[in-house]
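All the exercises in this workshop are built on plain-text protein records. Sequence and backbone structure share a record, each on its own labelled line. The structure tokens are whole numbers drawn from a learned vocabulary of backbone shapes. The record below serves as our worked example for the rest of this section.
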Amino acid sequence: RIQPQIEKLEPSFFEITVAMAFDAFAKDNVDIAIIEVGLGGRLDSTNIITPELSIITNIGWDHMNLLGNSLIEIAAEKAGIIKENVPVVIGETLPETKAVFAEKANAGHSPIYFAEEAFGVIGHSINTHSLSVRYTTKEKKIVSIETDLPGIYQVHNIRTALTSINILRQLNWKLDETNVMYALQNVKDLTGLMGRWEVLREKPAVILEVAHNKEGMTKMLQHLEQLSFSKLHLVLGMVKDKDVNQVLELLPKQANYYFTQAHIPRALAAEELAKKAGAVGINGTVYEDVNSALGKAVQQASANDMIVVCGSIFLVAEVDRKIFAN
């Protein structure tokens, strides 16, 4: 039906799928559509809508070739989704980015809310398959949350979600507290979410984690610091357009490394990754694909070791879960 327009305009794959999604939402008369920006915000194809609420989760060093070479420039692109008179929630800020968001919101008379100010973190505990967090609100109320997403970064994501829910309630949305708590406790079952500190098996523990940039890897390493295990094994693959050296410099030298790659054109060759790693004192073995690498890691690991597959969403997607879950 739209093939002639596609041939005439030559949109990207993402632009085509966004248009198809919006068309499907309209035809099905959906009640609620949660639209995630593809990249940046200001120029993203999803940014043609006027939402009930805008949410900016965080700002990090990613896609600099398209979004800018400073956090202020990247924040300005992200702030492009802030619409006039539409409230916006900011999940995490830095001193330089907070000012960018506040200026954009004020210019458009958009109420702005910072999740860090709405919910202060009292403490958290991580279990194999869950995360428990305690927050305090501005009104000094204690809020205890448990989720089936054990990644430490979910501490920030949860309070962003809770802040957003409170704003929607102010807009007269009827969001039952029992349903909210149930949803947070059962995210994986309700959504099918995978690759976010996904525990594939135990003894040895095999974790799938889609961390692929400096910020994501930093959070992953912070999570590992809070766990008890004997030896760390990292199955690592990345894509060409990431700042690979920035990531490698974060990683522990004493871990066992298995370098590999996803089977996509964007993938950085495993041999090239190993070479870059060697330059910063990280050594390991190269494998043709992630399943070969993970198989070797499982074979070499002891029952108390920790194996993490990370570095690329595409890499994690190629893991044969049926094989390694058993």
Q: What stands out?
A: The mean pLDDT is 94. The longest helix spans residues 154-170. The chain is about 40% helix and 15% strand. The chain has two domains: 3-191, 198-324.
